[in-house]
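Please check this:
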Amino acid sequence: MYGRKVKLRLVFISLILVTLILSVYLIIKSLEENVVYFQSPTEIKALGEINNKKIRVGGMVKKNSILVESKDIKFVITDFKNEIIVIYSGAVPNLFSEGKGVVAEGFLNDRKLLLATKILAKHDENYMPPEVKEALEGK
């Protein structure tokens, strides 16, 4: 019915298509595992269930909330509606201070406690990450 050349072309096109579909699937799966979602303390309080996925919590460091204990640093992130306590072990950025914007990345212990693995501070006095700005404005 079909000649040998046509059959070879169909097999070749089919292999390319299967390879392309498999590649896209693997890329999407690897990105899914590495995506870190940003949430404000108010959004965390409204969570239905707490899973073991890494998240980013952003807001302002509450005044008089920074407590340094040996290697750990404890502080409170607020969006002026709700608060979450953050515990972090390690060096914090130079721009990290009370009343400044911060994003903490880590794992939720419960709705009130984040065990941070990374602290990100805003890089100048006028800059605020869009996610933090939207969360603070209540959008």
